[in-house]
Amino acid sequence: MKKKPIIALIYDFDGTLSPGNMQEFGFIEAVGKTPREFWTESDAIAIGSDASNVLAYMKLMFDEAKKKGIPLRRESFRDFGKHIELFEGVKGWFRLINEYGEAKGVRIEHYINSSGLKEIIEGSPVAKEFKHVFAGSFIYNENGEAEWPGFAVDYTAKTQFIFKISKGILSARDTVMVNDSMAEDQKRIPFSNMIYFGDGETDVPCMKIVNMFGGNSIAVFDPSNEVKRAKARKLLRQGRVRFITPANYTKESRTYRVVCAIIDKIKADCELQSFSRYE
């Protein structure tokens, strides 16, 4: 029996599925700061120490929680995740696309590739929709409290997860299998079967890689934010993405029409490729 082609939809999170940074939905308020105050302090740490922006915000989260006596447990992060706001249509999006893929004879898988925190995403209303979440995380002590960054995901670190998804590797820490040579036809999900969703500069390396190897990258933008719209148009002009669309995920949206058209093309390409083998 011929296997169904697998199509991977890979999403950034902040600004792509959600209109804000995930730390802003509960955590920053809990430590008594405004988003502007928190991110200004985080940037100051990164600039002052010439450090990673991601490690800087993780340190600030740790320090502020400790100062306020807030225990940072996995459960605490997941509780913050329950309050994440999502763009219109996100909650029903996965069912829509899964059903469309099923009707077209392909298998759809959804992944997160984020510089945010895995534990917060795992508490979000759509956490169950993803085959795997690649994101930052903390190391927890014997009492279950965060005590050190375990994994920080910046814009270059994101690229490794694209290759891991292609090879079917779900371990964030793996550095062996991801670098093993593998024939294109042996990869679980070829790059041509990938659709990457992002909203900004941290997604550019992934967008370029997916496009370069025959996949499709989409820049989404908050339709109420002209700065974000202009940024998406710039990415399109520069050839970093193939499509741009407002961050609306309803069945009536441009996003849905674009993704369905890409799925149709991937299925047609897979069928055409099968004719190249004649026995």
Task: Note the topology.
Layout: E1 6-11, H1 27-30, H2 35-49, H3 53-68, H4 74-81, H5 90-104, E2 107-117, H6 118-121, E3 132-140, E4 146-151, H7 157-167, E5 194-198, H8 204-212, E6 216-221, H9 226-237, E7 243-246, H10 254-274
Parallel strand pairs: 1-2, 1-5, 2-3, 5-6, 6-7
Antiparallel strand pairs: 3-4
Provide an overview of this structure.
It is built from ten helices and seven strands. The protein has 279 residues and is an alpha/beta fold. It has a seven-stranded mixed sheet, sandwiched between helices. Helix 2 crosses helix 3. The longest helix has 21 residues. It is globular, with a radius of gyration of 19 Å. It starts with 5 loop residues before the first strand and ends in a 5-residue tail after the last helix. The mean pLDDT is 90.
H and E order:
EHHHHHEHEEHEHEHEH
- Regions with little confidence, pLDDT below 50 for 5+ residues: none
Q: Quaternary state, please?
A: single chain
Query: Judging from the principal axes of the Cα atoms, what is the shape?
Result: globular
Distance between the termini: 16 Å
Major sheet details:
7 strands, mixed
Q: What is the radius of gyration computed over CA atoms, rounded to a whole number of angstroms?
A: 19 Å
Q: Percent of residues in beta strands?
A: 15-25%
What is the residue-averaged pLDDT?
90
Output the number of helix runs.
Answer: 10
Instruction: Tell me roughly what share of residues is in helical segments.
Output: 40-55%
Sheet with most strands: strand arrangement: 4-3-2-1-5-6-7
Total number of β-strand segments? 7
* SS-derived structural category: alpha/beta
